[in-house]
Amino acid sequence: MLAHPSRLAFAALLALSFAACGDDDDGGGTIDAPTALDAPGGGGDGGNTDAAAAPTCSDYCTTIATNCTGTNLMYANTAECMATCSKFTAGTVGQTSGNTLGCRLYHAGNAAGSMQNANTHCRHGGPGGDGLCGSNCEGFCTIVQGSCAGQASPPYADMGACMTACGNYATTPIYVAPQTGGNHLTCRLYHATAAANAPAQHCSHTSMAGGGVCQ
User: Fold this and answer.
1) What is the pLDDT along the chain (215 residues), one digit of tens a residue?
2) Buried (b) or exposed (e) across 86-106, using 16+ Cβ within 10 A?
3) Which of 30, 58, 102, 133 is deepest in the core (most CB within 10 A)?
4) What DSSP string runs through 94-150?
C-alpha cells in the first residue's frame, strides 16, 4: 500500500529537522572543530589572547629586576632599564625568540625560582639577548643606534657599521651590569644601556675606540 502524501511530507520535514540539529552537536560533529589558525599560537582570533598582547617596559623592568640580581644583574637601575627598553621592537607577549621586548620579557619571567633558572634565562632576557632574543651584537646595536644616532658624533654610521664592528669585540667576560671598563662587548653593552638614559655621557664609550673607558 502507498503511504499517504501527508505522511511522506511529514517524514521529510522530520528528517530535515534532525539534520539541522546535527550541525549544532558539539559531541560528535566536526563542524565546530578548531582550525589550525584557532589553535593557541596558531595566529587566529581563537588562540591565546595574551599571546597577541603588547608587552610593556614597566612589566619587563619589574620582572628582570626581581629575578636577575647579583651576578645576573642586567641593568644598573630602573631608569636605564626603562630607557633601554624603549629602543626594542615590542613584539608580543610569550615570544621565545627574536630581538624583541616580548622575547626578553618571556625569559626574564622564566628566570624566577632558582639560581639555575636565573643563570639560564637572565642574559636571554637582558639587553643583548644572548643568542635567543637576538644576538648580543643585534641587541647592542639596536640600543646604540636608538640612543646615539642623533648625537653630534655618533659612534657608528649606521646599523651595518655597528654590526661589523661588534663582530670584532671580545665576547668574554659574560655580560653583567655594571661592567664599566675593559676592551670587550660586555663593557660596551653596559654603556649602551647607560647611553639610553644619558647619551651625551655614555655614547662614546660604546664606540670602537671605547671612549677612554671600554679599551
Assistant:
1) 444 444 434 344 334 343 333 333 333 332 222 222 222 233 333 333 354 689 999 999 999 999 999 999 999 999 999 999 999 999 999 999 999 999 999 999 999 999 999 999 999 999 999 999 999 999 999 999 999 999 999 999 999 999 999 999 999 999 999 999 999 999 999 999 999 999 999 999 999 999 999 99
2) ebbebbbbbbebbbbbbbbbb
3) 133
4) T--SSSBHHHHHHHHHHT-SSHHHHHHHHHHHSSS-TTTSS-HHHHHHHHHHHHHTT
The answer to whether residues 188 and 206 touch, using CB atoms and an 8 Å cutoff, is yes
* Residue found under cell 639610553: 196
The C-alpha atoms of residue 215 and residue 204 are separated, in whole angstroms, by 12
Q: Which three cell numbers stand for residue 148?
A: 646615539
In sequence order, the 6+-apart residues with CB closer than 8 A to the CB of 42 are 35, 36
What pTM was estimated for this model as a whole?
0.76
What the block records as the C-alpha cell of 99 is 630581538
